[in-house]
């Protein structure tokens, strides 16, 4: 009995050592970490490396806050924590400082500043009565020629979710992801006449991922081995907000240079041509960008030729049907980005083991519908009719099918599809038996070559 107890203790100790080793291997935190300076984003470096202005611009920010009213999602109960950090004014001021284009002045808590200056005056008047009057005067406050307004105006949860998993004999793994999105608007307002000089808009996705693995197996009738491992990573919302704000500041600077909002402070335009060209290039690319950082376009042209290799199997009145390999060649004409008319011809072989083997030449006409014509990867469905020619009487049939296409190279698409053929009569093999019409299944893999105009 004691030996079994010692064995269990030893097994538990070994498992703890293995788990600790796995924790270190996966980079999981096991010890407290020291405080560090805040992380930089991609745009922090870009802001700090921008060409300097001829003269810095005094700018004021009264309030740049979360305007979404969004709370963190909670699986159970209510969560009254906000989804967006409430210190976005401070983040914006830090971005203005990093750019070296602006002199931010305190306006968010200006009441505190004015109160402190009043305390300084009162103290000096009370305790420095005999001193020179000039020593008690405080310098005037800076005033801003431009105010920055706006805020975080949108927080969209679960704009894209998905996952993938598999399990076999008690061993399984899965992964899941979720994307949220924040949107920021920033505008520059002239204090001279209240004119809104420029408005910019940026957005940033927030990615959360989870990877899990598990093992579940009965080793014996009374012994069960179970193990799990998992890792979840959530992109910090604060860093996402910081990156979006820094992108907005950079965009505001470039737009102001282009439209000459900054006046003499910008200096010679030639000094900023490189960043203006980069900004214009990004703007041009964003014309076709949609949520998910995708750039849909019409990749398919108005004509296409294609070839398929097919696995074919008949379902007729004889037993033991066998699968054969055939081929298909065809031509497509796109009447619109989604619809095309297809003409094709194929070699179809029907065979029942030790009973019948017959080959057909089969021309077909199909109408095809592509579900997502602006994306490289898209499912499609089609249907039509055809004729099966051999040395015997022609057979008429209908067909429908569907599949997936991926445009992996310029003007070339890879296709995988399945097709169901249904005869109008029950005599493909020359035998009429029962009420069911003769049928066939086809599975194909092929290439589409697009020609002509998009």
From TrEMBL:
SUPFAM superfamilies per the UniProt record, alphabetical: OMPA-like
UniProt entry tagged with the keyword Lipoprotein: yes
Signal peptide: 1-23
One GO location term (cellular component): outer membrane-bounded periplasmic space
Record keywords, A-Z: Cell membrane, Lipoprotein, Membrane, Palmitate, Signal
Entries under InterPro entries matching the protein: Curli_assmbl/transp-comp_CsgG (IPR005534), OMP/PagP_B-barrel (IPR011250)
Protein name: Curli production assembly/transport component CsgG
Organism taxonomic ancestry: Bacteria, Pseudomonadati, Bacteroidota, Flavobacteriia, Flavobacteriales
């Amino acid at each position: 009995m004691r030996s079994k107890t010692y064995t269990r203790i030893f097994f538990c100790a070994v498992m703890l050592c293995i788990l600790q080793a796995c924790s270190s291997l996966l980079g999981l935190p096991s010890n407290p970490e020291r405080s560090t300076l805040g992380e930089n984003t991609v745009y922090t470096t870009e802001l700090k490396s921008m060409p300097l202005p001829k003269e810095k611009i005094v700018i004021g920010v009264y309030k740049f806050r979360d305007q979404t009213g969004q709370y963190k999602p909670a699986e159970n109960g209510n969560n009254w924590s906000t989804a967006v950090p409430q210190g976005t004014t401070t983040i914006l001021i830090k971005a203005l400082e990093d750019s070296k284009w602006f002199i931010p002045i305190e306006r968010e808590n200006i009441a505190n500043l004015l109160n402190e200056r009043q305390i300084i005056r009162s103290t000096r008047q009370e305790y420095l009565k005999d001193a020179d009057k000039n020593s008690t005067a405080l310098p005037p406050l800076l005033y801003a020629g431009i105010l920055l307004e706006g805020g975080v105006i949108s927080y969209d949860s679960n704009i894209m979710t998905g996952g993938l998993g598999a399990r076999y004999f008690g061993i399984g793994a899965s992964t899941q992801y979720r994307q949220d999105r924040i949107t920021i608007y920033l505008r520059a307002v002239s204090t001279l006449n209240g004119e809104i000089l420029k408005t910019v808009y940026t957005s940033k996705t927030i990615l959360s991922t989870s990877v899990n693995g598990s093992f579940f197996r009965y080793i014996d009738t009374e012994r069960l081995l179970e193990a799990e491992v998992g890792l979840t990573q959530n992109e910090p919302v604060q860093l996402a907000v910081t990156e979006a704000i820094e992108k907005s500041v950079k965009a505001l600077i470039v737009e102001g240079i282009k439209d000459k909002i900054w006046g003499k402070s910008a200096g010679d335009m030639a000094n900023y041509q490189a960043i203006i060209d980069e900004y214009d290039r990004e703007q041009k690319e964003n014309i076709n960008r949609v949520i998910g950082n995708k750039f849909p376009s019409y990749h398919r042209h108005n004509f296409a030729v294609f070839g398929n290799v097919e696995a074919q199997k008949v379902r007729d009145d004889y037993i033991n049907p066998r699968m054969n390999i055939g081929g298909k060649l065809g031509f497509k004409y796109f009447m619109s980005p989604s619809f095309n008319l297809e003409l094709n011809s194929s070699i179809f072989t029907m065979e029942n083991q030790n009973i019948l083997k017959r080959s057909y030449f089969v021309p077909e006409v199909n109408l095809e519908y592509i579900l997502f014509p602006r994306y490289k990867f898209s499912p499609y469905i089609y249907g039509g009719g055809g004729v099966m020619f051999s040395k015997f009487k022609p057979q008429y049939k209908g067909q429908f099918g569907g599949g997936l296409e991926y445009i992996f190279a310029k003007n070339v698409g890879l296709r995988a599809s399945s097709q169901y053929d249904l005869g109008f009569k029950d005599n493909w093999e020359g035998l009429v038996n029962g009420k069911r019409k003769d049928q066939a299944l086809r599975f194909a893999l092929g290439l589409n070559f697009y020609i002509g105009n998009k």
